[in-house]
Amino acid sequence: MRVSVLVLPFSFHPKTSNRRFAVPKRENFTSRQSTVSAQPRIHQSAPSIQAYGTVTHALPLDLDEPIRLEMTEQLNLLLADSMTLRDLYKKSHWQVAGPTFYQLHLLFDKHFAEQVEIVDVIAERIQLLGGISIAMSHDVAETTRIPRPPRDREEVPVQISRLLDAHQIIIGACRKLAERSDEIGDAGTNDLVVSDVLRTNELQVWFLSEHLVQVPLAVAQPSEMRKVG
Ligand SMILES: [Fe+2]
């Protein structure tokens, strides 16, 4: 004999069965077994688990909370500047024009890729210290110290000057942060700032600056026509 079972969406309580409304079944650990489904649970939301500008407690790093707070704040500034410089390199890579197009197109993209690495290293250092790294372009735009370039396309010397100015801001910040992190005993941040950020930025500055040196391209200038300045 076939028995059909009626599955009710509510709990049935014998003692309260004379009530007009059944009591909805509460979701608990055991009842989750019955909610397993291949359907993705999309559009979920919940309160944040950590507020921006705070650091988590009691990380076994032997670094006091005030130190981690100060370092994560400074590293977020450096992160915003590095993300801006990274994007400025991609803008330059796309928009470059002129006889040096090919080599600059490649050089800008090489520097972009190196800045991508720097961004990741800084962001992960912030997280490691118990803080929260900024990530989205809106937050980067509000935080960076690098001036906003126009949407327009600019000539090569202007592109390179803009990139050099951005590098200068980052390099200056690196020197201050390296000194401060050393002073308060955060050797890890000091090493990251000097070895990864500062030295890469210095090298990129050299490669860019050489493109702004005024030298003859194909024909050497006779000494009587040459004005050295
Ligand atoms: Fe490309």
* Ligand inventory: fe (ii) ion
Q: Would you identify the CATH architecture of the domain at 65-211?
A: Up-down Bundle
Helix coverage percent: 40-55%
| Series of secondary-structure elements, N-terminal to C-terminal | HHHHH
Rg result = 29 Å
Low-confidence stretches: 1-24
CATH topology of the domain at 65-211: Ferritin
How does the helix and strand content classify structurally?
Answer: mainly alpha
Largest sheet: none
Shape: globular
Short description:
The protein has 229 residues and is mainly alpha-helical.
Descriptive notes:
This protein has 229 residues and is an all-alpha fold. It has a domain of 147 residues: Ferritin (Up-down Bundle). It contains five helices and no strands. Helix 1 packs antiparallel against helix 2 and helix 2 packs antiparallel against helix 5. It starts with 64 loop residues before the first helix and ends in a 20-residue tail after the last helix. The relative contact order is 0.11. The N terminus is likely disordered. Bound molecules: fe (ii) ion. The site of fe (ii) ion has 2 residues, from loops.
Q: Topology, please?
A:
Layout lengths: L64 H31 L5 H28 L8 H7 L12 H29 L2 H23 L20
Bound molecules: fe (ii) ion (FE2).
